[in-house]
Amino acid sequence: MSRTLLLGLDGATFTVLDALMDRGLMPTLKSLCDRGVRAGLQSTANPLTPLAWTSLLTGRSPGHHGIFDFVRVEQLSHHPHFRLATSSDIRCPTIYAMIGEQGLRSISLNFPVMFPPRPINGFLIPGFVPHRHLQRAMHPRELYDRLGALPEITLNELPVDFEDERRSVQVLAPERHEEWIRFHIRRERQWSNVLRHLMRTEPWDLASVVFDGVDKLQHACWRFIDDGLFASTGASVWAQKVRELCLDYFRQLDDLIAQAVDLAGPEARVFLASDHGFGPSDEIFYVNSWLAEQGLLAWKDDAPLAPEGYINTEGMKAAAFLFNWSRTKAYTLTPGSNGIYLRAGGAPGGPALSTDERDALRRRIIDGLMRVRNPSTGERVVRRVMVREEAFPGPHSDLAADLTLVLRDYGFVSVTRSDAILKTRKEVAGVHNPRGIFLAAGPGIRRGEVVGDLSILDVTPALMHSLGRPVPHEFEGRLPAEIFEATHAARPAGVAATPVRPASMPAAVAALASPLLETAADPAGMDAEGEATVMERLRALGYIE
Fold this sequence. Notes:
The chain is built from 18 helices and 17 strands. The chain is an alpha/beta fold. Strands 1, 2, 5, 6, 7, 8, 15, 16 and 17 form a nine-stranded mixed beta sheet that branches. A hairpin with a 7-residue loop joins strand 10 and strand 11 (about 340). Helix 10 packs across helix 11.
């Protein structure tokens, strides 16, 4: 068994990191690559933060753990109901719970869908919690006062502002770029200070943190971070300044990685992973406007056209409040889900769709989407559409959208109303890509190796193995023995063989499918204060008025 450090870099991609390492801007990351193993990391079928990190922490795919988006959609007779996804929606135990039952202690910082905090043997601070609710979000509760008394920690810089969060994936005003980057430099340092304080002062076996500024900067500043793109567009003094701030963010992030690795010590194993990768997007597909053209969705008469470049309904009512539900059969609520839901009754107010009717409507929509082309290039806008049983197999697939879209550039759809179903972006934006990063280094890890891509579901078995614990049979990934030296790759008793993956599943989804036994955790209750927190987050994200 080795103490194990897990550093999550939200949205990290070797496309960016390799260039930074080559220029000497991230020497710690380069050293970890040189003395360890690296691989691409294939994300969940829809590479979105809440479901991907939950898969990494549970070893289960979304169809088994039950998280499909930041919100959970429930079909009602008159219109859908939606609420923020919380830890109560996770239908299987996290690695913290599993190893805690075996007496191991954990530190978990800034992972999504961890609120309200479930007690673990150690310390937990969820991500995506407003500052005024941060105290009740910590486990144990007294951790808040303890951290607040430390001069190096500023608690009000740990949370993210949800309005800023929405803006970062849409159109960030030029005058806000510099402060946006500086804020995330400060915020990453705060999470690092919390991590190092707990690592220094508390016993731990698994220490983990997510640095999510990588995702935030790449969404808003991709054209400044990507070398080739910047070379063709970055001539202005302002652009040069923004780029230098972006590079400084990565320099300082590398320093935080170095501090955590040094504190863990030479006997610890270090794992770095991202929930997804990143890449460029130059177009926006207005999926609800397309559904309206097909006669499957109707807008309210006063539903406004979205501002240029927007994919969500910032400054307007949420998308659900813009639909005429009496005439809507199919709809998309959130950009990140890239998911189309069918009304439970097909025709509003009508009887439930039969299996054949639902399949026929799905096929009609899929066939139509696959015919959508960019009129300028002739390229398909949608590269693939998956039904939920294909994208998210498992006992909870019925909670997912009926259809999940994969766009040509892997970008997010727009849920807003538009006068055209496809528009070219004024500026190239950064969007999620299914291929993230994986790095491992330390005792028993092979040195200087590049191995084939892993699944995000393979990370949890690797962590359990590093901790000297058997890999549970219900895990859907495999133990990546190829990252370990031969003498350290032997499976402890109780490790399952490579899970059976149905031959009918597509390769991109095969690693996510396995008809394994569900181990559900009892949902955590939520009091009135917790409900208020959830409502505040929904309001800030634009889902309620």
